[in-house]
Amino acid sequence: MWAVIAVWCLYMIAVWGPTVPLVAAEVVQEHGARAYGLVNSALGAGTVAGGLLALRLRPRRMLRAGAIALFGFAAFPASVGAGLGVPAMAAGAVVAGAGMSFWGVMWATSVQTQVPADVLNRIHAYEVAGSLAMMPVGQALAGPAASLLGAGQVLLAAGATSLVVCAALLAVPAVRGLVRADAPGPAASAIPGPVRPDTG
Prior knowledge:
Helix content: over 70%
CATH topology: Growth Hormone, Chain: A
Structural class: mainly alpha
Number of domains: 1
Number of helices: 9
Largest sheet: none
Number of strands: 0
Order of helices and strands: HHHHHHHHH
CATH class: Mainly Alpha
Shape: globular
């Protein structure tokens, strides 16, 4: 769990934080507000598709499956940063939304089923403070970074960093090896809280 939160801090600062404002600025500037609405709608459609897929699939190793799906998010900032056309950006947004949503369901389900109930609220507080709180930091740094390097370069870097983050998640044995709580076979190891040993 702590490994995921630590990696997610980097994700929010270097990937999601810059992506939100810079994609909006780049798409509106190059293609207009209508195109941005289309791309953003495509992201939403992908999110719905990923959520529906997560409802149907029950992978034995949920965090590993989620991390693999999350590789798809790189398509969103990278397609905008590369200056591709609106259809390509919309396609990238669909893939990104599906990957992010699928990961979110896998992660939330793992936390809910692996963390002991008496520390679940505390763990959720750590998760929010240690990961989501970093998103404003990434957004604040996006402007200066874009001024220095160019918005397109920052978005391409965000896409590359997204791939690195997914690889880092899969490199953690406790993440890729965590078995779903109700999976048949040997008992799954629990995601750690402050009072539990390592995994996740």
